[in-house]
């Protein structure tokens, strides 16, 4: 039987492919980071769907952790592109463009 | 700060919230595991106490009352904005006129401004770029969306939620 | 399982998938970085909400439902923060901005 989780999964996979195309093409580095962040959100959704597809409730914990890691990862990459390092920003005020 | 709360009260509130979160995500209810939970929540509260981040900004329990009235409205706005942006994206010739606008904010606290800026970003079609004093620089996908935002309905509602405390 | 719940789940999951795909199409079609952020936020808001709501109707164990709601909350809290951080960084790096037609306003920085 063609079930609803399979349908959602297929849509998510199609969309992930589109996101990947943008990540590869993306003219600026920010397009790539945006694609990465969006890809992460879809991964979270996909893990949640897989949880129901496979009937394994442990997967939701993974999705939960992945949602947080995705956010931290995006911020870390952004900070790295902005400052060139991941240390605190207090002693590098001069780097700030604002 | 419009209201000063007793830090001890806020710490206890934070502890209760954390412990509820812990109980909900654990799923094991034996004495040993629950005592681990109590210990780790107490550790987190202790660390935040040492970091001096327990204030009405870090633990905004006074906003819960206002949020109950604000959040459903925000969700409805987000759904409407989604349908609007979806139409714009799917048209063969995309109907977009991207532009930068500045909106005024009327919130009294930083927390209120952060909530307003985040609501703007959460709504598809508008992204807040930077908050400066009481002005927010916003990128809007189309002229109509920008005009809708400049009417200030969302601003008024956030201010009202902030004032309800 | 009640057929009503199944149908509601179907509707929610399919419409969620629709919005997710619209987000993907927007990410590919839109002309510049700033507009693509809007497309990505479609996926992050309604797309994710509808899919998680659809899953929520199929939950058999309460704790699973609570975890789904927690995922939803984390997504709601983190997605505007990361898109704001992205746009702000891009704005300071002077990423080119697409403007349609005659230029209405100068960049008032």
How would you describe this protein?
The complex is a heterotrimer of chains A (98), B (165) and C (109). Chain A is mostly helical and 98 residues long. Helix content of chain A is 74%, strand content 0%. Chain A contains 3 helices and no strands. Residues 92-98 of chain A have low confidence and may be disordered. Chain B has 165 residues and is mainly alpha-helical. Chain B has helices spanning 7-26, 31-50, 64-90, 110-122, 143-150, 153-163; strands at 99-104, 126-132, 135-140. In chain B, strands 1-3-2 form a 3-stranded antiparallel beta sheet. In chain B, helix 1 (7-26) packs antiparallel against helix 2. The termini of chain C are far apart. Chain C is 75% helix and 0% strand. With 109 residues, chain C is mostly helical. Chain C has 3 helices and no strands. At the A-C interface, helix 1, helix 2 and helix 3 of A face helix 1, helix 2 and helix 3 of C.
Estimate nothing, just give the exact number of structural domains of chain C. 1
Compute the CA-based radius of gyration of chain A: 17 Å
What is the helix fraction of residues of chain A, given as a range?
A: over 70%
* Structure class of chain A: mainly alpha
Shape of chain C: elongated
Radius of gyration of chain C: 18 Å
Number of helices of chain A: 3
Q: What's the pLDDT, averaged over the residues of chain C?
A: 83
Provide the fold topology.
The complex is a heterotrimer of chains A (98), B (165) and C (109).
Chain A: H1 4-25, H2 29-54, H3 59-83
Chain B: H1 7-26, H2 31-50, H3 64-90, E1 99-104, H4 110-122, E2 126-132, E3 135-140, H5 143-150, H6 153-163
Antiparallel strand pairs in B: 1-3, 2-3
Chain C: H1 3-29, H2 33-56, H3 62-92
Helix pairs in contact in C: 1-2, 2-3
Provide a short characterization of the protein structure.
The complex is a heterotrimer of chains A (98), B (165) and C (109). By secondary structure, chain A is an all-alpha fold.
List keywords for this structure.
heterotrimer; A: 98 residues; mainly alpha; 3 helices; flat; disordered C terminus; B: 165 residues; 2 domains; three-stranded antiparallel beta sheet; 6 helices; 60% helix
């Amino acid at each position: 039987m063609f079930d609803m989780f399979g349908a959602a999964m297929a849509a998510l996979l199609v969309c992930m492919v589109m996101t990947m195309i943008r990540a590869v093409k993306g003219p600026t580095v920010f397009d790539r980071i945006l694609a990465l962040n969006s890809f992460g959100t879809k991964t979270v959704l996909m893990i949640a769907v897989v949880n129901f597809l496979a009937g394994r409730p442990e997967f939701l914990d993974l999705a939960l952790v992945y949602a947080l890691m995705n956010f931290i990862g995006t911020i870390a990459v952004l900070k790295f592109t902005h400052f060139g390092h991941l240390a605190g920003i207090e002693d590098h005020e001069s780097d700030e463009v604002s | 700060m419009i209201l000063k709360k007793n830090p001890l009260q806020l710490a206890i509130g934070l502890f209760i919230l954390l412990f509820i979160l812990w109980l909900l995500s654990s799923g094991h209810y034996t004495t040993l595991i629950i005592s681990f939970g109590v210990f780790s929540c107490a550790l987190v509260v202790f660390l935040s106490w040492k970091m001096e981040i327990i204030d009405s900004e870090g633990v905004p329990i006074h906003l819960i009352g206002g949020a109950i009235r604000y959040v459903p409205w925000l969700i409805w706005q987000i759904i409407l904005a989604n349908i609007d942006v979806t139409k714009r994206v799917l048209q063969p010739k995309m109907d977009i006129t991207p532009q930068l606008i500045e909106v005024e904010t009327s919130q009294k606290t930083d927390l209120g401004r952060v909530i307003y800026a985040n609501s703007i970003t959460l709504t598809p079609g508008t992204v807040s770029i930077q908050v400066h004093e009481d002005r927010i620089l916003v990128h809007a996908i189309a002229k109509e969306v920008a005009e809708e935002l400049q009417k200030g309905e969302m601003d008024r509602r956030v201010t009202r939620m902030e004032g309800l405390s | 399982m009640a057929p009503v719940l199944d149908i509601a789940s179907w509707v929610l999951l399919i419409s969620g998938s629709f919005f997710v795909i619209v987000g993907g199409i927007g990410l590919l079609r839109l002309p510049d970085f700033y507009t693509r952020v809007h497309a990505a936020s479609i996926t992050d808001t309604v797309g994710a909400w509808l899919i998680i709501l659809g899953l929520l109707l199929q939950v058999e164990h309460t704790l699973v439902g609570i975890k789904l709601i927690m995922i939803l909350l984390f997504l709601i809290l983190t997605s505007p923060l990361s898109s704001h951080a992205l746009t702000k960084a891009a704005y300071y790096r002077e990423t080119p901005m697409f403007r349609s037609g005659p230029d209405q306003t100068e960049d008032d920085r």
